[in-house]
């Protein structure tokens, strides 16, 4: 009874919001409002950045939840377990290489990794895939190549470093957490489990996929909006001249661009062009830190991770990624560049 009441109230609120939107869209005189009330330039800029992040991320979120739903409906636990090497250490290598044939950016990777874990994939293997796939895919490789046509070593450095760092992340997670359950069970999943009951009728698999995709999309949407808003706040009010000043040293500049990558929350398909524009200010090592760290960890996917995984695990993952990327970049600068 309570569940039905909650559902009904949600539907009423949704319809009310749609009605308000239609009313303002048809009858609201925006020009008169703009003449009478003007927002500060910074807040208009914030609005533009927020919308650009959300609009850029939504297609990839849709892709992610659709792939997640396909896994839920068509992939069984037995299929997942059979596809993973028995040796838990060796399993991290194919997990990292999976990104080459599975072009998913960091906006879409969280629901996919979460679903694979729910289907039986070991925690550390799923997080190797989560870290590697947004970088080691053909779309990102192509965008990095075109952004750094005058310096092809950036493409090689990005791919090699991402592969090695992703494997290190997976091994550390395995040593610390083994294959413990770090997933949160959301309220929506609990409600769905109660409603489903033991005698749920089998539905058409296509319909089931669409149902799962729509539920997961609206569930993830709130985390995307929160992450995009926080990222847009930082982009609007953070003084970037401070970053440039601090980033002149070869040891501090990677940290500066890692912070910058986390804050600006770009999709991995587009971040190479931003990195190329910073080439005259920052050293190649710092640019590599930006290109590797951002797709693995940014404001958007951090909010999603906190929404679906236990807090202590997410904090540990953030620490592991940060240390691994920074150490990898420093060593790469010392021995390769």
TrEMBL record:
Keywords: Cell membrane, Membrane, Transmembrane, Transmembrane helix. This is Permease. The keyword Transmembrane helix applies. Signal peptide: none annotated. GO terms for cellular component: plasma membrane. Belongs to the UPF0718 family. Its main location: membrane. It comes from Bacillus weihaiensis. It is found in: Cell membrane. The chain crosses the membrane at residues 12-28, 48-75, 87-113, 125-148, 155-177, 220-238, 250-266, 272-293, 313-335. It is a multi-pass membrane protein. InterPro entries: DUF318 (IPR005524), UPF0718 (IPR052923).
